[in-house]
Amino acid sequence: MKWNFWVALVLLFLFSNEYLSKFALGLFVGDLGVSNAIDRTFQFASFSSYFFSAGFRAIPFLALAVISVKSHYRHKAAGRFALWLALFGISAFHLFGYWEMQHSLFTNERASSTAAIAVIWIPVWATILLGLGYAILRIAEQILRMFRARA
């Protein structure tokens, strides 16, 4: 893979987090201005909480990095497209999961007492879905090879 994939992987890992989702919720759901949304986003933020969630968030990104280094998909255009699609899918899954986890903070709904567990389970589910996507890609590749061999 080229350097732009690795830069995108690192940047999306760093910024696809609960703080970006909370900022977007403040802007779009909470109807806050930019400065108020920033204040509300980082009101209780700390480096230890960021690094705690980053440890779990790293799991699917590291899995994708291993797949991109070890697999032959990086040598084909369709494979590179699949790796980019997986990267954006992982990021979107994280952002959507954190959005849903914190949505009640900006509405009249009550927050679940177990909502913080999502910090752990969102990356786990993202890794599971990445593995399923990789398995489907491998199966589709084998089926395509089988049909090419018969033709």
From TrEMBL:
<feature type="transmembrane region" description="Helical">
    <location>
        <begin position="119"/>
        <end position="140"/>
    </location>
</feature>
<keyword id="KW-0812">Transmembrane</keyword>
<keyword id="KW-1133">Transmembrane helix</keyword>
<protein>
    <submittedName>
        <fullName>Uncharacterized protein</fullName>
    </submittedName>
</protein>
<feature type="transmembrane region" description="Helical">
    <location>
        <begin position="50"/>
        <end position="69"/>
    </location>
</feature>
<feature type="transmembrane region" description="Helical">
    <location>
        <begin position="81"/>
        <end position="99"/>
    </location>
</feature>
<keyword id="KW-0472">Membrane</keyword>
